[in-house]
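Propose amino acids for all 365 sites.
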């Protein structure tokens, strides 16, 4: 439980630094080519960096600070237990939403005669907007086959095909899981919303590269937005028009010839940016420990005999070996306990306030 509390506190610091940084950069200078990648790096990268600091603590680095949090009152275990319970409930709600979505399109029927579409196409009378329901299938609402022109239908299919090519459905599920499990970070909701908007803009641009008329794409988007008015919101829908997709802004963007379109190409420089950002967070962000602030003593023994260590605020302030006071040499989380006689004891401090050590041999010198 203490491990989970330490990780959660560290994650909150890392995610706040990274998500606030991306939010600030998007306000100062909005670069659509980098925005989606930056939000993904911040949202998922902070989970990774928190684990890295747990298993590879850079406490011996001079640039890293250790911030202890008092958990001796028992409040932190209660908070962590409540977080786990709520996270499980929210994940169960997400799973239920997935089942509801599958049942919603249970009546779908295959559509034939659509050439050039690299996915199965089906139609359902129970949905109001085109959507991707698997990695190989696009489901259209019944009205689309009746009301859309040939050019508009081509634009719709190009947009949904772009979602499949970009694996947006998998990204949406991963984002939804992080947002629901790590609800203690409110900025995750902002990141999820921005990522959805980025995905829709990218698919609009990829669709424009495949279909001849921006007007057809804009018209189809406007029609889809009209049909979803009053329909219930679906959190796991990957589709052309959703309740949070800002249809009017996208229509204006589609019709604006001055917009620099996203081409979907991979850029190696982005990977270097992500590695540099995550490394900086691991090395420079403070380490949050959930150990007690008060002084406490750990008693243990190895083959050579008993020993004690007294710790306070993440540092060893005293120690004995075989009942005699020993000299201490500490560098970060590494401690060398030197007795008056015999072999020195090498100890490593752990994140949860405990210790590990290399056992001395009995009678060693």
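Proposal:
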């Amino acid at each position: 439980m203490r491990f989970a509390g330490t990780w959660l506190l560290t994650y909150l610091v890392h995610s706040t630094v990274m998500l606030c940084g991306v939010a600030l950069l998007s306000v100062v200078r909005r670069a659509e080519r980098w925005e989606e990648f930056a939000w993904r790096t911040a949202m998922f990268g902070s989970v990774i960096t928190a684990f890295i600091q747990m298993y590879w603590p850079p406490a011996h680095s001079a640039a890293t600070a250790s911030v202890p949090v008092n958990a001796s009152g028992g409040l932190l275990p209660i908070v962590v237990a409540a977080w786990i319970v709520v996270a499980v409930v929210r994940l169960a709600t997400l799973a239920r939403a997935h089942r509801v979505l599958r049942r919603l399109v249970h009546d779908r029927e295959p559509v034939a005669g659509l050439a050039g579409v690299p996915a199965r196409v089906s139609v359902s009378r129970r949905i109001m907007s085109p959507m991707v329901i698997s990695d190989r299938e696009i489901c259209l609402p019944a009205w689309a086959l009746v009301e859309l022109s040939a050019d508009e239908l081509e634009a719709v299919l190009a947009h949904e095909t772009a979602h499949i090519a970009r694996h947006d459905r998998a990204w949406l599920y991963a984002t939804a899981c992080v947002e629901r499990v790590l609800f203690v970070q409110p900025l995750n909701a902002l990141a999820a919303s921005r990522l959805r908007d980025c995905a829709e803009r990218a698919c609009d641009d990829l669709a424009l590269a495949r279909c001849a008329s921006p007007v057809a794409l804009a018209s189809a988007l406007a029609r889809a937005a009209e049909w979803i008015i009053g329909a219930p919101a679906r959190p796991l829908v990957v589709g052309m028009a959703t309740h949070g997709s800002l249809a009017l802004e996208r229509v204006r963007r589609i019709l604006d010839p001055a917009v620099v379109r996203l081409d979907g190409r991979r850029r190696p420089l982005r990977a270097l940016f992500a590695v540099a950002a995550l490394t900086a967070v691991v090395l420079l962000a403070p380490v949050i420990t959930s150990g007690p602030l008060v002084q406490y003593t750990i008693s243990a023994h190895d083959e050579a005999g008993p020993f004690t260590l007294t710790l306070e605020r993440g540092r060893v302030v005293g120690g004995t070996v075989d009942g005699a006071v020993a000299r201490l040499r500490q560098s970060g989380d590494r401690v060398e306990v030197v007795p008056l006689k015999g072999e020195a004891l090498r100890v490593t401090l752990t994140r949860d306030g405990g210790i590990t050590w290399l056992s001395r041999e009995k009678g060693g010198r």
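The CA atoms of residues 103 and 126 lie 10 Å apart. The radius of gyration is 28 Å.
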